[in-house]
Every structure is written in structure tokens, then in C-alpha cells.
Amino acid sequence: MIKMITDSKIILSDMACMLLSNITKYQDISMKFLKMENQQVEGLSNSTKAIDQLVDVFVRGLDRVYNKEAEYHFLASVFANVTMLPQGREYFLTTASYDDVTPLSKLIVFTEHPNIIRRGGVISCLKNCCFAIEHHLDMLSPSKINVLPYILLPLCGPEEFDLDDMEGMPEDIQLLPSDKKREPDAYLRQTLLESIVLLTTTRQGRMILRQKKVYPVIRQMHLVESDEKVSIVVEQVVNMLMRDEGPEEDNIVENIRSENPDLGNDNTIEEI
Predict the structure, then answer these.
(1) pLDDT tens for residues 218-271?
(2) Model confidence over 28-72: pLDDT tens digits?
(3) Residue 43 vs residues 8, 47, 60, 78, 197: alpha-carbon distances, Å
(4) Is 272 inside any structural domain?
(5) Cα–Cα distance between 65 and 81 in angstroms, integer?
(6) Number of domains, the chain
(7) Residue 133: inside a domain, yes or no?
(8) Domain residues for 61?
(9) pLDDT digits over 62-96, tens only?
(10) Does residue 264 form part of some domain?
């Protein structure tokens, strides 16, 4: 099946991606997939690991550039499935030896892609990776994975920010066009917000989110949010960012889980 996906001449590559997205919902299959090797594919990837090759074809195959018969959108659901496992999250958050790039950093650019399967799977993968608390600083670092702009951009609309609010914001979200559209899917907005909640787990994470002026973005979003479930998570984000820090308070993951009983690992996103 991997060869069907990575071969640029196979016309059923997208069907193979859909099948893989279905079977990797089973954790034992996801685990085997993470360990799978495949013959190196010239012109695609210098790695022999199947997961590396699929990440590369997902990126390079955009707009039918690699295979004129395939778009590879459903691989995003595969990545979402795999990151439900700690080993999958570790893979996506660790720099790959064959190209010195962290796999998640290759995916996050698609959080605003027009195809809901592609962007939805990537957003779910991103949220799942946020459960790896030990990687939060790398995820938030502008010189490393730098997930924050790609979480906030889909949550931004055309609203303008005050100069005081913009000071410290990621540059990517400071001056957005007047026709900027917010993520239209309520479930994906909720998933992005839950990612922020997870990133507030540690004191250092909360400090970074405050410095990066996440609150003004969430405040503007809250003013126009019409979905009740999304609004509830907005309020949770605000509470985490605006709360007073106790002298002994650092890692508050248990508090987050108790306040958010539905904040489990994400599932794949299916087209509706």
C-alpha cells in the first residue's frame, strides 16, 4: 500500500491514502506503520521509513505536482491517527535525521488549506502533538517548530488590532487583509482552541502565550463566535491566560483535564 502511495505513476494513490486513513484508526496498525520501512523513492525522499516518505509526498504532492492523479489529502487523517499514540507524537516532534526538519513543521502550513480533509487532519495532528508537554517550548519557539502563528491564523478574521495589542504578536497575524476569513468549521475552531488550552499546561507556556498576545486574538474571536461549544473553550482559554499565577503553580495538566473532560486525543477529520 505504501508503494501505491509513493509511486508517482499510480492512478489509485488517493484511494490507497483513504484506505490507510481508515485502517490506522486501529492503534496496533498505527504502531506497525510507525516502524515500517520502504524502499527509498528517488525524487521523493531520502528516507527509507514509510512515515517519512508519506510526510514528504503529502507536502510535495500538493496540487498534483508529484502525481497528476493524486492530491494526498487523506494522509492528513493518517497523521492525525498516528499522533494519538505517544510514539506518533514523538515522531512528529523530533527532528528527522535524513533532512534535519521536524515533521510537524512541514504540516502546520496547511492549517488554512481550502480542502477540509487536509487542513482538518493537520489541525487534529497538531492538537494531538500538544499533549506532549515536554515539547511545548520547542513548539512555541519561533526558531524551532513555531506552531503558534498556524494556530492563530485560522482563528483570525478581518478585525484590526490596536497597536498595543500587536506589540509582541507573531508577525504573521499582525496585518491581515480586510477580506481575511476565519475558519468556517466550528469543530476545527474548537480543536484549535483546545490546542491553545493544552499549551497553557505549564507556567512557561502561559507566559509565552501572554507575551505573544494570544488573548487579543481570542477576545476578537469571542465577539463574533456563534457556536456554544466553541464559546465554552474560548472562555477556558481566557481563564487560563488571565488567571493569577500562584507561587507554587507550574504544571497544571491535571487541572486542565478536570476542567475539560472532553479534551481527549483527537480523531481523524472526515469530510461532511
Answers:
(1) 999 999 999 999 999 999 999 999 988 876 556 665 555 545 545 555 444 333
(2) 999 999 999 999 999 899 999 999 999 999 999 999 999 999 999
(3) 10, 11, 10, 22, 40
(4) no
(5) 25
(6) 1
(7) yes
(8) 2-259
(9) 999 999 999 999 999 999 999 999 999 999 999 99
(10) no
> 20-41: string of b/e by CB count within 10 Å (b at 16+)?
bbbebeeeeebeebbeeebeeb
Q: Specify which residues 37 forms β-bridges with.
A: 49
Any domain includes 269: no
Q: In the 8-state DSSP scheme, what is residue 154?
A: G
- Distance separating the N- and C-terminal Cα atoms of the chain: 26
pTM of the model: 0.91
Which domain CATH number covers 143? 1.25.10.10
Nearest to 190 by CA among 130, 231, 224, 220: 231
Phi and psi angles of residue 49, each rounded to the nearest 5 degrees, phi first = -80, 135
- Whole-number Cα distances in Å, 45 to 1, 73, 83, 87: 17, 18, 21, 22
Tell me the three state secondary structure of residue 210.
helix
- Between CA 162 and CA 209 the distance in angstroms is 18
The Cα 190–Cα 160 span in angstroms is 22
Query: 218-229 burial string, b = 16+ CB within 10 Å, else e?
Result: bbbbeeebeeee
Which amino acid is located at 34 in the chain?
L
